Amino acid sequence: MRHFFPALKASHAFLDNAGGTQVPQCVIDAVLTCYTDSFGQRGGAYPASERAGAIIQRAHDVVGTFVNATDRGTCIIGSSSTSLLHLIASAYADALKSGEIAPHRNKIIVSALGHEANVHPWTRLATRGFEIVMWEPRVSREGRDMTARLCMDSLRELLDDRTLLVVFPECSNIIGQREDSIAITKLAHAKGARVVVDAVASAPHRLPDVTMGDFDWLVYSTYKVFGPHAAALYGSFDAFKPLTGPNHWFIPRESLPYKFELGGVSHESAAGIGALDTYMRQFIGADGTRDSRGVFTEAFRKIEAIEGELLECLLGKLRADDRVSVIGDPHVGPDRIAIVSFTVKGRTSESVARELSERGMGVKRGDFYSRRLIERLGIPVDDGVVRISLAHYNTREEIERLKIS
Ligand SMILES: Cc1ncc(COP(=O)(O)O)c(C=O)c1O
After folding, report:
1. Nearest 5°: CA angle at 387, between 385 and 389?
2. What does the alpha-carbon distance between residue 224 and residue 14 come to, in Å, rounded to a whole number?
3. For residue range 12-52, what is the model confidence (pLDDT) as tens digits?
């Protein structure tokens, strides 16, 4: 399938896919066609305007299908997951002030395992009438490896009838292990709380399904799923109820998702987002008649299988070097995502990432904006970890380049 992605002709391997993936030609074509053919303002009765409206509708349909929103909720499209989470957090603050949320329901439990995009929007609310409680990850060591996981017992201790939200990552962008979001949501719901699931790290590898976990909010970034630089936030209609979006005062609050899409969405991004459906069909060889969710499901099964083999190869190489500490599970498993972080004894992560880049591996090092987690792991934040994150278009040959002198 590599031929679908023009950028893969580069001499270096793209191995920072958790930072952002490459886009297939059909996404590029869709963006180009949007500019050449459909770049009108919505709401007119002329062809370009109608096509623009259709592009935006299709983007919403595709992200809705991607998370399996069905008829229980809808997706807001925005510029990034960070911006969407700030938007919702701010709407919660407005709702508390206006009495839409009961004053005693003002506690938010925030996981320190997460990327700052799903931490800071909530910690900021401490000055707006909320009590913010950090949910600490459980750090453990085995041999030279180390990991950090969400801890259900700690959550049970933190949860009470005052809890409004439990905010956590489905998968840390450092650890690469899927957490039990369904069990967490059940616990939260039992106390009348809602969940905000950051699926940014897992969505490129495991197809989200908001119906399976009965999630209230779930966010992912489309630029990490073979699309343009944008993001989508699913909210159930129940979760939206007490909130009022910040779009113009004369737009009714029931007008979802528009009330939360300030000034509308980027048309060219919407075009590219909609083309994910096209790529998934090309990838599995499905024609236009198959239902979209079925296509995504089959495509992600295939992605999981391809990535599983690549991940085994990568982890095997790291395990074979006794200077390497894997930060996360060093073995493949059903919930092990193809995001692998590590440090090397006697070397800075900066020097290792530089050496690997020179060997043709496009990787980086740092805290990857999960600064709190890196601190909890006792790793110097100014150097961080080296991270290799795979996509289904990577190859064994690219992973074989991994040599640390
Ligand atoms: C787990 C996780 N959450 C959130 C984000 C933030 O996404 P965005 O860049 O769309 O704001 C990232 C970005 O790397 C991430 O890895």
Report:
1. 160
2. 12
3. 999 999 999 999 999 999 999 999 999 999 999 999 999 99
Domains of the chain and CATH, by start: 2-23+292-399 (3.90.1150.10)
Residue nearest to atom 13 of ligand 1 (CA): 19
Q: Are 17 and 226 spatial neighbours (Cβ–Cβ below 8 Å)?
A: no
Give per-residue burial for 125-145: e unless 16+ CB within 10 Å, then b: beeeebebeebbbeeeeeeeb
| Amino acid in position 49 | S
Please list, in sequence order, all residues whose beta carbon lies within 8 angstroms of the beta carbon of residue 400, skipping any fewer than 6 positions away: 313, 317
pLDDT tens digits, 42-86 = 999 999 999 999 999 999 999 999 999 999 999 999 999 999 999
The answer to whether the beta carbons of residues 386 and 353 sit under 8 Å apart is: yes
pTM of this prediction exceeds 0.90:
yes
pLDDT, position 1: 86
Distance CA 58, CA 45 (A): 18
Contact 299, 318 (CB under 8 A): no
How many angstroms separate the Cα of 366 from the Cα of each of 55, 307, 345, 363? 37, 23, 16, 10
Query: In angstroms, what is the span from residue 58 Cα to ligand 1's centroid?
Result: 24
Pocket test for ligand 1, best of 84, 369, 385, 387 (most atoms within 8 A of CB): 369
Asked if 167 contacts 111 with a C-beta cutoff of 8 angstroms, the reply is yes
